[in-house]
């Protein structure tokens, strides 16, 4: 077994890497997971009262940063009160992220002691979600139920900035009656903005 929170405060439980990952993970990757834990969680008891920090995992290409982040997501959602993680990435890597999540942290397992299943859902926003309502449906379900949301940089930028442009157009049309459909879209965008940006998720991961 691979212990993550080495030297943790007295009274806190040991936290271990999922067994299926522990059998494969390399020493430098264990160090990366511990680095993420120390900088983002630090202490499970003090987590609620801490404002939190961020960090940069700057391993070179091919050294398994995706595995380390997936392993940490499991720890983060399992051992803290947090429920939402947003992963923003180049769109051409999104499908690889989906495959890696399903490989390392499957949703189901016939032998939990050998393969510990994940306790969260992985939500995906890709080219199949073309309309605002389709995108909002995925985002709001993720925000309500919790889990990991995978999204490309361009779509995230589009959704994050769209509310601002909607507000500008609305102010330019002061005095005009808005159609109910436009008002509905505005409310939808406000809900999406709350989920993605302000206050946003509990953890944001940016894959460069």
UniProtKB/TrEMBL annotation:
One of its GO terms (cellular component) is nucleus. Pfam families: SNF2-rel_dom. Residues 28-156 form the SNF2 N-terminal domain. It is found in: Nucleus. Keywords: ATP-binding, DNA-binding, Helicase, Hydrolase, Nucleotide-binding, Nucleus. It comes from the Eukaryota. GO terms for molecular function: ATP binding; ATP hydrolysis activity; DNA binding; helicase activity. The keyword Cell membrane does not apply. InterPro entries: ARIP4-like, P-loop_NTPase, SNF2-like_sf, SNF2_N. Belongs to the SNF2/RAD54 helicase family. This is Helicase ARIP4. It comes from Bactrocera dorsalis (Oriental fruit fly). The gene is ARIP4.
């Amino acid at each position: 077994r691979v212990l993550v929170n080495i030297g943790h405060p007295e009274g806190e439980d040991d936290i271990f890497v999922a067994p299926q990952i522990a059998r494969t993970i390399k020493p430098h990757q264990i160090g990366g997971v511990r680095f993420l834990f120390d900088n983002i969680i630090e202490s499970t008891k003090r987590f609620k009262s801490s404002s939190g920090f961020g960090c940069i995992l700057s391993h070179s290409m091919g050294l398994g940063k995706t595995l380390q982040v997936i392993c940490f997501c499991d720890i983060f959602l399992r051992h803290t009160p947090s429920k939402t993680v947003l992963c923003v990435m180049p769109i051409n890597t999104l499908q690889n992220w989906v495959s890696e999540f399903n490989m390392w942290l499957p949703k189901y397992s016939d032998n939990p002691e050998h393969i510990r299943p994940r306790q969260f859902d992985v939500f995906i926003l890709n080219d199949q979600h073309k309309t605002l309502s389709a995108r909002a449906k995925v985002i709001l379900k993720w925000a309500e139920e919790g889990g990991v949301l995978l999204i490309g940089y361009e779509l995230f930028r589009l959704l994050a900035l769209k509310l601002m442009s909607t507000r500008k157009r609305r102010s330019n049309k002061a005095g005009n009656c808005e159609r109910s459909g436009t008002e509905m879209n505005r409310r939808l965008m406000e809900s999406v903005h709350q989920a993605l940006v302000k206050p946003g998720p509990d953890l944001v991961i940016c894959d460069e």
